[in-house]
Amino acid sequence: MDFWDQRYSQPDFVYGKKPNEYLKAKLVDLSSGRILFPAEGEGRNAVFAAKLGWDVFAFDSSIEGKKKADSLALTSGVSIDYRVEGLEQVDYPASYFDAIAFSYTHFPEDKRKLYHKKLSAYLKKGGFLILECFSKNHLNFQKNNPNAGGPKDVTMLFDLEEIKNDFADFDFKEAYETETDLEEGLYHVGTASVIRIFAVKK
User: Fold this and answer.
1) Over the stretch 116-126, which tens digit does the pLDDT of each residue have?
2) 82 within 8 A of 64, measured Cβ to Cβ
3) H helices of the chain, where?
């Protein structure tokens, strides 16, 4: 069993059942359409979007994550299209989605730009990018708090200018680094340094 299957096989929703607060704040102000959640894990964000009326698509490499997401969707009275696939395998039509949401979606440094380019191609012109991920400065909080979450490899943490370059064909409405206090299940707890982006595809 790989790392993520092992983590998601725990009885508890390890990142909680509530959506990420930044994602929530952005989605409630948008008209619903099709939205994609890469590396969606246990489905908390996807289910929230579905409850708002979005047509939700998600994928993750973990079958245990899908089981949790399907269960949460069922108890919430919504449906989501959730695939068990890695980013190398996943394939959606070009310009298909009205929004794409990255919530702590971290990729290896040598693949990150390529993966971001692949995923952004699935977004329509005028579509929305919503992103909250750990910054490189988050390492300082990890040292003091093992439950702060995020990759321990600094190369997988985000630099604001690098991420803006990855999404160069976007108009950035918000793009900043900040500190926030997380209360997301068992593994995102305490002060964190995050990057937040809200952008529109040109």
Assistant:
1) 999 999 999 99
2) no
3) 3-8, 21-27, 44-51, 63-76, 109-120, 139-144, 160-166
Can you list the domains of the chain with their CATH numbers?
A: 3-201 (3.40.50.150)
Query: Tell me: the pLDDT tens digits for 28-68?
Result: 999 999 999 999 999 999 999 999 999 999 999 999 999 99
Q: Which two tokens stand for residue 118?
A: 């692949």
β-bridge mates for residue 184, sequence order? 188
Reported as a single tens digit per residue, the pLDDT across 138-155 is 999 999 898 899 999 999
Kindly list the distances between the CA atom of residue 91 and the CA atoms of 38, 55, 63, 82, 148, in Å, as whole numbers in the listed order: 12, 17, 18, 13, 32
Q: How far is CA 4 from CA 64, 121, 198, in A?
A: 8, 26, 27
The model carries a pTM of 0.96
Q: Give the pLDDT confidence score for residue 4 in this predicted structure.
A: 92
Q: What is the pLDDT of residue 146?
A: 85
List Cβ neighbours of 169 (8 Å cut-off, separation of 6 or more). Answer: 120, 201, 202
- What is the H or E stretch that residue 175 is in? strand 170-184
CA distance 191 to 182: 6
